[in-house]
Amino acid sequence: MTNAITHHPSDETLAAYASGTLDEARSLVVSIHRSLCAACGHAVDQYEAIGGALLEQASPVSMRPGALQAALGSIGTSAQGAEIASEQPLDRHKLGPWRRVWPGLQQRAVSVAGDSDIKVFMLKAAPGITLPHHKHTGDEWTCVLEGAFEHQFGRYGPGDFDEADETVDHKPRICSDVPCVCIVALQGSIRLQSFLGRLIQPILRL
Ligand SMILES: [Zn+2]
User: Fold this and answer.
1) Distance 187 CA to ligand 1 centre (A)
2) What is the per-residue pLDDT across 5-64, written as a single tens digit (0 to 9) for each?
3) Topology of the domain covering 11-87
4) Rounded to the nearest whole angstrom, what is the distance from the C-alpha of residue 83 to the centroid of ligand 1?
5) Ligand 1 centroid, distance to 41 Cα (angstroms)
6) What span, in angstroms and rounded, lies between the C-alpha atoms of 158 and 150?
7) Domain formed by 99-204, architecture
8) CA of residue 8 to ligand 1 center, whole Å
């Protein structure tokens, strides 16, 4: 990929991902970024190594013979594992059909295990459109797969990760000349800001 990735998950997010404490929904979106971003792949490897070392200190007696070698072995091969994962990170997930939810905007559901309040979906937005002005009640994590959008914090192209919490007031515009396809993990719900937005909110079912 020639596109330079400039927006990454926070260190806190990468550490939570590496320790396995993230829910399946947000983990999926982080794993897609990780599979595209060498820097974050390396950071996750480091966090996993630190986590393994801490585990070793915490339970020196109860660890089974060979467990450390097994752990180190998995650390040693995780870079390769990331590449394998990067080929088809969505393979284990069922994708729903594309549905038109707004002029120039399509959405498809992505199934994830568990029953958290976090939904995962893909968005495909036409060049030049501005997404409905919105705020959210929880985190909204986005990884761009194709095309690009921009908002007040910069331009987001393939591989870029947008980690927005409930304080962010969003109005992204598609700035690529091809459709922008993203995968999104959304916690809680979206609050559209305009009068028209509130009218179409039930249609979007976000
Ligand atoms: Zn990254």
Assistant:
1) 21
2) 999 999 999 999 999 999 999 999 999 999 999 999 999 999 998 877 776 776 555 555
3) Arc Repressor Mutant, subunit A (1.10.10)
4) 14
5) 7
6) 12
7) Sandwich (2.60)
8) 4
